[in-house]
Amino acid sequence: MTDESEVPEIDTWEEMIAWLVTSFTDQPVGLIIDLGPSDYVSYVGDEDFEDEDVERVVCAQVHVLADGVLMVRRSRTVLERLRLDDHAIEGLELDRWFFDDHFDDCTDGYVFTRDIELAADACAAWFRDMPGAPSLEQIGCDYEYPVSLPPSRSSSVN
To answer: CA triplet 90, 141, 145: central angle to 5 degrees?
Structure first.
């Protein structure tokens, strides 16, 4: 991902897709990219927050898995940051939209794919075509890189 000072001016959905393709390419396993309204503030940690207060927020999330696979999730509620126990892709069906309830917060499906352009297009199309979604100018991006454990230190005991 680029830092905010390197984000190009994006005036069309095609430019958004091109920027997302660049942003999704060659990223480390475990990276999570969230897209949604740039002015949204979540109150999930607020003690006065209750489940019935869940606001509808059109958003998308990309999670980088192993072997160049991206998981794209689309929702009309805030997506939690997943804490996957494994990033391996064995047994995952690629390039098929799933609409089951595997992820409670994923209201409008998810897909596993190696096709970076498909992933970028799925995100852009979600905002472009969903009523109530933020406009191109209102979409914000947040991302979180995985944290590596410290390398082991071999010590010899005499």
So the answer is: 50
pTM above 0.90, yes or no: no
Q: How far apart are CA 95 and CA 127, in angstroms?
A: 20
Residue-by-residue pLDDT tens, the chain, 158 positions? 544 445 678 999 999 999 999 999 999 999 999 999 988 766 555 555 455 555 678 999 999 999 999 999 999 888 888 777 778 889 999 999 998 777 777 778 899 999 999 999 999 999 999 998 999 999 999 999 988 889 887 655 55
Show the DSSP H helices in 25-135 as ranges: 116-129
Return d(Cα 120, Cα 35) in angstroms, integer.
Answer: 11
121: number of Cβ within 10 Å? 19
Closest listed residue to residue 27, CA positions, set 83, 68, 84, 60: 68
Q: How far apart are CA 94 and CA 114, in angstroms?
A: 8
**What is the rounded end-to-end Cα distance, in angstroms, of the chain?**
47
- Cα 154 to chain centroid, rounded: 37
